[in-house]
Amino acid sequence: MIREEEEDDDEEEEEEDYEDEKRGTLSFVLSFISNTMSGFLRSLVCFRRAEMLNVPPQSFPSMSSQQRVAPSGQPRNKVALKPGHSLMDWIRLTKSGRDLTGLKGRLIEVTEEELKKHNTRNDCWTCIRGMVYNVSAYMDFHPGGEEELMRAAGMDGTDLFDQVHRWVNYESMLKECLVGKMVVKASMVLKAQPTKKEHTHVNGITPPPPLLPEPAKVPLPAKDHRPRYDWFQTDETVTIVVYTKRKIPNSGCSVVDLQGNILRIEILLGSWSYLLHWSLSHEVEEIVATKTVSSVGKIQVCLRKVVHAKWTQVGQPLESHDSFIRSKDRGLFYRDCVLVSKKEVTHDTQLFCFRLPPGTHMHVPVGRHVYLKASIQGSDVVKPYTPVDEVLMPQKKTVSSDIYLMVKVYPDGLFTPHLDSLDIGASLSISSPDGPSTLRSLRDVTHLYLLAAGTGFTPMARLLRLALQDLSSVRKTKLMFFNRQERDILWHSELEQLCAEEERFQVEYVLSEPPGSWMGRRGQVEATMLQGFLDRPEDSKCLVCVCGPTGFTELAVQLVRQQGFSEEEIHAFQG
Q1: Which residues have C-beta within 8 Å of that of residue 350, sequence separation ≥ 6?
Q2: Pro residues compositional bias: what residue ranges (predicted)?
């Protein structure tokens, strides 16, 4: 996640305050009623063509579920899988020739009544975006446990799936479990809800069209507060200018992709996403230049013409052009990146550097991650990782053409051994930034406390740099770093150097398997350990950030609460 300035906090708070204010205005009410009535009328037109059931959203996961996220951002639990039930084992099973549908290779059309019949542990069907899958065999392989899969048993699970797993490539993982296509009676049309994403072809079957044109998931800001764009040209260049109408970070908040003659510009504005998408009128050079003018909220994208001729338009608008929606409702976009370097950080952790394509510029805000996608044994495997800078405290602006990832390699894993085996020059698909931004909670913070375990340090690395170099309000930053052995400490020498040079920074190491000569803290995270670490000076504003394995994060958040910190003062990075 490439660094983000304090202005991003202002931008997010300003946008959220504005949304609250406009909800009370008459124009908002009229706009909302208009959109609602328009959507209802369109639904009547589509009435006889509907083929897919999508039940209204439900509370998912349940209040008692192991996957429920706590108010502080505590990540969901993963269930300990039985031996022989890893992702690699599931891929082997799907390729074994075993009949996972119970239909001996037949594909059928499934009615609502038929779907409801298959709602037990050993006979569990569910529907995702109009396609029905028999997930009975997958129960013991699901990292979230049987309970979560059973919540979608015998029903349409599209909304439930999107709330927890929208980035997962379910088509690839469940292709051998495909039962067929979902169909319903026309009378069910008005009860159905639209799907969130585009449909894809699965095993030769084309999913049914969406029931209704996709409405906004939440009311959009009034039109005059939407970003807008303009463009101008010279004999040699074409420049697109985006006016965001709000403060934006100096480091940038844009993701630009030029692939052939297709130009895609996405602007990340807090929890919102503004997209421009064209098939360009004429050929341009591969290199794209971007410029951010944070003081006025302006972003410029400059293209160089191949032929010095006058353009009458930028190009033909493509899907979702000039759209402004919640980022969570925008589908992930990938581009192929090239591995340019790999450096050992510890005995089992590598720092990978991937170079974006020449036509891509990407700024990853602090607090967000990217997804890596690779084809392994014929299946697409997707994993989220938090980018870091090339070094702990870079002295110059990070180049937006490089993405650095600090990854621990697990010998018995599926994805990380594949990643580690890549040769320099090999390609890997990397998504645009995703996940909630964490920076609004940093506004006016004076004391920042970081609790990290293992590779849970990665989101803390750029947060450290932001706090010490860009946030003038922060008077003290303290890191408590938990590891098994001293050799496991990431960027150990860099942390020691920073501690010696920066009086506002303090680090404490805790080892669970220390040598006899170890003079630092020992053991696991516990209450007495945090009592002296989490001090609250008079007239201070504190924030405690936590990241690590699920068990560590849960316990640490609980202990921090016991120290008297409120939910607003705790942020657990999702992992």
Answers
A1: 342, 343, 344, 406, 407, 409, 420
A2: 206-216
| Residue 15 confidence (pLDDT) above 60 | no
Element (H, E) at 478: strand 476-483
Exposure of 139 by Cβ count < 10 A (0-12 exposed, 13-18 middle, 19+ buried)?
middle
pLDDT for 120 beyond 60 = yes
Question: What are the tens digits of pLDDT across the range 404-435?
Answer: 999 999 999 899 999 999 999 999 999 999 88
Euclidean distance between CA atoms 543 and 554, whole angstroms: 17
Phi, psi (5° rounding) for residue 249?
A: -70, 150
Strand, coil or helix: 342: strand
Cβ-count burial 101-112 (b if 16+ within 10 Å, e if not):
beeeeebeebeb
Q: Cα(393)–Cα(496) distance, rounded to whole angstroms?
A: 12
The amino acid at residue 18 is Y
Question: What is the residue type of 311?
Answer: W
Residue 386, classified by CB atoms within 10 Å of its CB into exposed (0-12), middle (13-18) or buried (19+), is buried
- Does pLDDT of 31 surpass 50? no
What pLDDT is attached to residue 184? 64
404: Cβ contacts below 8 Å, ≥ 6 apart: 351, 352, 353, 354, 387, 388, 389, 390
Q: Residue 573 has which token pair?
A: 């990075």
DSSP string covering 99-124: -SSSSTT--EEE-HHHHHH-EETTEE
**3-state class (DSSP) for residue 219:** coil
Q: What is the 3-state secondary structure (H, E, C) of 271-317?
A: CEEEEEEEEECCCEEEEEEEEEECCCCEEEEEEEECCCCCCCCCEEE
> d(Cα 427, Cα 458) in Å, to the nearest integer?
23
Residue 440 pLDDT class (50, 70, 90 cuts): confident
Q: How far is CA 459 from CA 7, 203, 253, in A?
A: 19, 39, 18
| First vs last C-alpha separation in the chain | 15
Predicted model pTM: 0.68
Three-state DSSP string of 367-435: CCEEEEEEEECCEEEEEEECEECCCCCCCCCCCCCEEEEEEECCCCCCHHHHHHHCCCCCEEEEECCEC
pLDDT in tens, 495-516: 999 999 999 999 999 999 999 9
Give the separation between CA 176 and CA 103, rounded to whole angstroms.
11
Task: Please give the Cα distance from 524 to 400 (Å, whole number).
Answer: 38
Task: Provide φ and ψ at 344, rounded to 5°.
Answer: -75, 130
pLDDT higher at 350 or 140? 350
Location of structure tokens 């180049």: 399
- The span from the CA of 300 to the CA of 288, in Å, is 10
**How far is 12 from 418, CA to CA, in rounded Å?**
38
Cβ atoms < 10 Å from Cβ of 217: 12
